[in-house]
Amino acid sequence: MHSTYHAGELAAGTGLRTMPDWTKCVSCRALVYAKRLARNLFVCPDCGHHARVGSRLRIQQLTDHGTFRDAGGEVTAHDPLGFSDLRPYRERLAEAVARTGESEAVVAGSAEIDGRPVVVLAMEFGFMGGSMGTAVGEAVVAAADLALETRRPLVAVCASGGARMQEGVLSLFQMARTSQSFALLHEAGLFSICVLTDPTFGGVAASFAMLGGVLVAEAGAMVGFAGPRVIEQTIRQRLPKDFQTAELLLAHGLVDRVEPRAGLRPLVSLLLALHVAPRLPARRPLAGSPVLRDPRLLPSRSKDPWEIVRSARDITRPTALDYLAAVFDDFCEFHGDRHGADDPAIVGGPARLDGRAIMVVAHQKGHNTRELAARNFGMPHPHGYRKAVRLFEHAERYSMPVVTLIDTPGAYPGVEAEQNGQASAIARAIARLTRLRVPVLGVVTGEGGSGGALALGVGDRLFMLESAFLSVISPEGCAAILWRTADAAPAAARALRVTAADLLALGVVDGVIPEPAVEAAGGTAANLARALQDGLEELDHLTPTELLAGREWRIRSIGRRTGPDSSAQQLAEAGGR
Fold this sequence. Notes:
Layout: E1 16-18, E2 22-25, E3 31-33, H1 34-39, H2 55-62, E4 69-70, H3 89-100, E5 106-113, E6 116-123, H4 134-150, E7 154-160, H5 168-172, H6 174-187, E8 192-200, H7 202-205, E9 214-218, H8 228-235, H9 246-251, E10 257-259, H10 261-276, H11 305-312, H12 320-327, E11 346-353, E12 356-363, H13 369-374, H14 382-397, E13 402-408, H15 415-419, H16 422-434, E14 440-449, H17 450-454, E15 461-465, E16 469-471, H18 475-483, H19 489-496, H20 500-505, E17 511-513, H21 523-539, H22 544-557, H23 566-573
Parallel strand pairs: 6-7, 7-8, 8-9, 9-10, 12-13, 13-14, 14-15, 14-16, 15-17
Antiparallel strand pairs: 1-2, 2-3, 4-5, 5-6, 11-12
């Protein structure tokens, strides 16, 4: 049994009134030809309102035609408490079955998405508001078990009013059952996507719906724990117009993406390709690596450090998003720290480098005043570093190498940042990078300011672009403290040894990437791509244990004296000032 949709007839729960051949949108009240509405995936072509659709249609819209197979062993609703309110619970169940054609509020089974095998489940809001009772909990657990057994990713489409009151505390504990099943998927390194549709509330939102490896909300969906009417009645406060919308969740860093219905299938397909594609065989290192590892060979070593500092700060230099477009393919930006905020000064998400799936995390500035202000001039708040840590851990869970692009004046020094734990957020980011069980490559692409830069700069390899700099403090700050005047910033830049040549001689960085004066054949971006490819190839053959041991040795070696004035001698040999 299943729900069907055709011209002139929409099943209950779509959010649209049914008329012969024509349908009235409940949002803008426009009349829409039913066949046109169906072709538009039941999204109003006039106002963009996303009508609610049933579980079978959801599966049809997301998966390859004819590939869905029910999991078998049909889950059937039952009445464990013998519950009755104004009507017996059994009568309500029978009515829901007759109205939707489903035996419960969830449909699950196996399917393919662009040829990739998946386990898929979709909730049926038309069945008692998609509420989760014992049978729904059993179906979700069974779908997760099938994913574990077959090593397939799980795609869950959520739509629910919450726990089913008619099954009492047994319904409440389905939150624990389903959450445990998703925790087992995470432990096994199996990928999952939860698509949050309108509405997703209560016990479903507070359990498995928010535990997917990636959270994608459909545009316009309402998502939350307590419903708006309950909140208003409890706190006696009028709620904002956009309260609990998918778009507000994205702004507060609670979901990775918000997508219109037409974009859901392409996005899900891309995410599957990035997370479950087979690992590429190791290639031989590219001939003629552009990375310079001898400071004496750097053309920039004769440049004045203050000139390099000013060059690194030039707003015409490529930003992280520029490099993401030029060097990487299929970048899919993830948002938020999942604790209430998203920081635009940190961008990140999975991408491809020469066909290999990786995780990129980067500081982002801008090319004009508007862009710089929107990105807080590349100075992250604590939630930016917490987002970075979340992405580091996501990469580790799904065995993705991490690439970081560093370009920041430093962490944001404001009152709010301090109150929200700026120091601890930076410390956790640094510590987490030191122990990731996947390769980590960092590149200073512009300005490398203090601990705010180092939070993305710890790993197996650290490279610098030739005109970048990295410092414990800004030259201006150092001059103000030690010279007692910011006018001494050029002298401070020279004394701090902040250039690529200096830091290569000191053993802080592993190589320098040339920046051609004439950007022929891709120039700097091409050199960056080859440097990253070579760096990853050097690390490909290492086990996680070997990676951690090598990283530990590398970090412990920085600044260690191996002989009298060894660092000064290296700088002198390199022609350091």
